[in-house]
Amino acid sequence: MPHWLDLMLQSLGPLLAAGLRFTVPLTLIAFMLGLGLGLGTALVRLFAPRPLAALAWFYVWIFRGTPLLVQLFVIFYGLPSTGILIDAFPAAVIGFTLNVGAYTSEIIRAAIASIPRGQWEAAYATGMTPAQALRRTILPQAARVAVPSLANSFIALVKDTSLAAAITVPELFQAAQRIVAVTYEPLILYIEVALIYLVLSTCLSWLQTLLERRLGRYGGYLEARA
């Protein structure tokens, strides 16, 4: 068996274990929290009084306009100078959540804004309050519009979790770095990590395509009934 293949096979187990233990939970937790934060931020920007909307805009401006790696460094390495100590994994969750929330808020805000005004008026005509119209009529339609972009954000987040290695989270990429420190075979190990990320991204892209097709059929059904 070639040396490179033997090394890949031996390291595959530790790499997958690190991915399952840290990369997958980090991705899921940060995305779900970020999605909730993004929804709240989008609603504040669209419907809240101007001071709150300005505060939400400022948050989005900061986290979309600065590098994710810098944000992680500020949280993990910078905050301790103010007396705020956060362990590596929670710091990564906070950093990724804030970053994802900023981007998803723009996706959700644009999706809500894309719904024709007539949908609001039709909901009001049936006796719904603004909150009911938003929850029952607008958000379901906006969700269908936002799904492709949100799925792309999720796939990007899977790859971005490799940045957590910079703040000592022992996820997939840092596991590879530790093996490289012992084997002195960076090319082989980093190619293997790249292939693992590639497989994950490909599987998620395939699931995204299936979801978009399903939503497309559902949207066509609704349009046929309209």
Automatic annotation (TrEMBL):
Which key words are in the record? Amino-acid transport, Cell membrane, Membrane, Transmembrane, Transmembrane helix, Transport
Q: Respond yes or no to whether keyword Cell membrane is given for this record.
A: yes
Does Transmembrane appear among the keywords?
yes
Annotated signal peptide = none
Gene3D superfamilies for the chain: MetI-like
**Primary localization class, coarse:** membrane
Pfam families according to UniProt = BPD_transp_1 (PF00528)
* GO MF: transmembrane transporter activity
GO BP annotations, alphabetical order: amino acid transport
Q: Which cellular component appears as one GO term in the record?
A: ATP-binding cassette (ABC) transporter complex
Residue ranges annotated for the ABC transmembrane type-1 domain, each copy included: 20-208
Q: Where are the transmembrane segments?
A: 20-44, 56-79, 187-207
What membrane topology is given? Multi-pass membrane protein
Instruction: State the similarity comment.
Output: Belongs to the binding-protein-dependent transport system permease family. HisMQ subfamily.
List the NCBIfam families hit by this protein, alphabetically. HEQRo_perm_3TM
Q: What is this protein called?
A: Polar amino acid ABC transporter, inner membrane subunit
